[in-house]
Amino acid sequence: MIRLSSQCMLLACAGLIALTAAAQAETVRVTIAEYSKGTGPYFEQAAAEFEKANPDIDIQIEVSPWDSLQQKLTTDISAGTNADLSIVATRWLLDYVQQDVIEPLDDRLSDEFRGRFIPTFLTPSVLNGKTYGLPIAASARAMYYNKDVFAKAGYDAPPATWEELKTAAAKIKETSPDVYAFGLQGKEIETDFYFNYAFWSYGGNIIADGKSGLDSQAAVDAAKLYKGFIDAGYTQPGVTSYSRDDVQNLFKQGKVATVITAPFLSNQIKSEAPNLNYGVAPVPAGPNGDQATYGVTDSIVLFSNSKHKDAAWKFLDFIFSTEMRIKFDKVEGFLPVNKEEASAPMFADNEDLKVFAGLLPKARFAPVIPGWEEIADSTVTAVQKVYLGQDTPEAAFKDAATKINGILAK
To answer: Whole-prediction pTM value?
Structure first.
């Protein structure tokens, strides 16, 4: 007979208890959209900190690139193998609500929890009076400009209007012939909104009275502005070959003097191009003083078929604490969605973020309506035809508006 010492028996019992506890721990799966190289490490660290305080819950982080996230979710939902929680683009919420695959969160939202958020960023996740997501990421758009290039052209301040930018572009072409004045995006995500910066400033609306706003003078004027920049050589050649990341890289390399994009470019510049002398300014205004920015939120949602909703909510409560939000936005360079976070020195003393925050009252968000992705694709196709000189703005936008109106009428 094998006899165990008291110490061995105690160790064996402790090991058995640990194994039993691990076996009984709830596993909460979380699908994370990859914003940057820091996204995965941040959430893994957040999961580890949460598990230390909640040993009965195991957080399993699954990171997915943005380009394949929607397809992954569609496949997983169809197979019933989706995670408990997932980051989604807020504009996808309506489709998930109509499919009845995500859970309203209102019964779990205490006054204290709801009160943590800046209303501007929580509102887009509210559909039919119910809150279907929490704003995991928030952003706006502003114009980055190369101070040295503008100074060489005789400017000590950024252009405030499109007309001023056009005048400055001509001087930049003369004084810095190896630099393009305006970095223009022409493919992939947000190509439609890059056009909308000018469209909105000319008084246009994406949807007006239930119909497409593309079949309007504002859209034509905005397109002619951008096409004029292209034809004059003020933009980089082949704009329809450049994505958001591509144009941002041109700016970091000093090859374009301006680019309109999100706050996270500031972090990239600090780490990748620390010697770049840049500033951040509002998107240029139109002839009547109209000005707008693109407001963006991504949401994290709780799936209806989750078997671990209480544990999942507990993790949400943790990552939406002020401390964790500061850590996340420091990694990613997003705007604060938490009121207390917004007053932290990291944000309150950040001159770049002050510009973005100041634009929020003028922010416009993607409409949360059925068929939005198809509508966006139609807009992108029309815009690309104009940029390439394959069609006039009038003809391209009339055709696109007809298609969009058909989508809206469904």
So the answer is: 0.83
Q: Are 158 and 281 in contact (CB under 8 A)?
A: yes
Q: What element of type H or E holds 144?
A: strand 142-146
296-302 and 211-212 strand pairing: unpaired
pLDDT tens for each residue of 306-361: 999 999 999 999 999 999 999 999 899 899 999 999 888 888 888 999 899 888 88
Of the candidates 305, 299, 405, 294, the residue with the CA atom closest to the CA atom of residue 360? 294
For 213-235, write each residue's pLDDT tens digit. 999 999 999 999 999 999 999 99
Instruction: Check residue 220 and report its DSSP letter.
Output: H
Give which of 248, 215, 195 is closest to 404, Cα–Cα.
Answer: 215
| Number of alpha helices (DSSP H) and beta strands (DSSP E) in the chain | 19, 14
CA pair distance 101, 360, nearest whole angstrom: 31
Q: What is the 3-state secondary structure (H, E, C) of 293-325?
A: EECEEEEEEEECCCCCHHHHHHHHHHHCCHHHH
Kindly state the tokens that stand for 366.
Answer: 């993607």
What is residue 182's DSSP assignment? Answer: B
**What is the greatest pairwise CA distance in the chain?**
95
Separation of alpha carbons 363 and 141, rounded Å: 9
Rg (CA), the chain: 24
- What tokens appear for 329 in the block? 């936005």
Q: How many CA atoms lie within 13 A of 4 on its CB side?
A: 8
How does strand 207-208 pair with strand 211-212?
antiparallel
d(CA 141, CA 261): 5
In angstroms, the CA 315 to CA 320 distance is 9
Sign (positive or negative) of CA dihedral 233, 288, 120, 210? negative
**Nearest in space to 123 (alpha carbons), one of 363, 321, 292:** 363
Question: In 3D, which of 278, 32, 293 has the Cα closest to residue 139?
Answer: 293
